[in-house]
Amino acid sequence: MELNAYCDASAFEDLATEWNDLLRRAPINHIFYTWEWQKTWWDAYQPGELLILTCRAGDELLGIAPLFITGSSGERSAQIIGCVDVTDYLDFIVDAAHLQSVYAAFADYLAANRDRIDLLDLCNIPYESPTRELLPDLLADRGFRPAVEQQEVCPIIELPGNWRGYLSLLDKKQRHEIRRKIRRAHGSDKAIDWYIVNGCHNLEEEVAHFVRLMAASDKEKEEFLRNCNNLRFFEKIVPLLHERGWLQMNFLTVDDARAAAYINFVYGDRVMVYNSGLDHRDFSDLSPGIVLMAYNIRHAIEQGFQYYDFLRGNEAYKYRMGGRDTLVMNIRAF
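The chain above was modelled as a monomer; its predicted structure follows.
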């Protein structure tokens, strides 16, 4: 087993042809682990010193620990690239057939470099990840004091085979509310429609419309977009994921005016609700956000996806729409 440590961004180019192939062999494969996401995040934020660890057996890449180190002497923490705000799941990327040996090699490296790292702080780890299951004990065996705590929840709908089956998952009141909102929208004197952005649209223009609606949604999103790094990341990741076929940007229109929007990721077996925009001022009586989400869920069912993932956060609407909690964890080791 050969372990290498990359300390500059040339690592992304060196690993470009192998990264996603390894990810396809890993136990968990989320869009946030892809080469595209990780490189774009690093290019936008660069919050510390890059430290990407790789593990190989001969020429075969078996593991990537995509880390960075931040902080000053005595408070230097190693975190996963993407931590924490704009990325919902994070992890090491390890070949499922070599979990124990690769995690042991990573733990050996971290133990041998205690002079560089005062704290290992791994955020957004899915509960079912082998990182949670294996790494804490391996670190403890090497003198660390690990702690594993629940960080947040990601509500998810396990999608049935049809729309009727989905509605049956909801309680009677919410089932009635969704049907009522859809009927009211279509029973109004306004023309209601929705569309998914595709090759027939001007992506740059559609992104600008989305950003406008996102900023109009609430003060927190407006403030988020004022941060130059956040805006740069957003404007780079959207066209890249669209090019890969992993992005679903969609709008609900009222008399041809865009009233609500979602950016979803379509990756693997799930649709992930990443961000939204909503015009509260003119169309709130038509509940455009909920109506569009209902269309999105029905479309996901029709396309054969298994999960509709609301990602991190316990906002009430996620549970009203049928979400059930899954956990994301934080692993800290001193």
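The chain has a mean pLDDT of 96.
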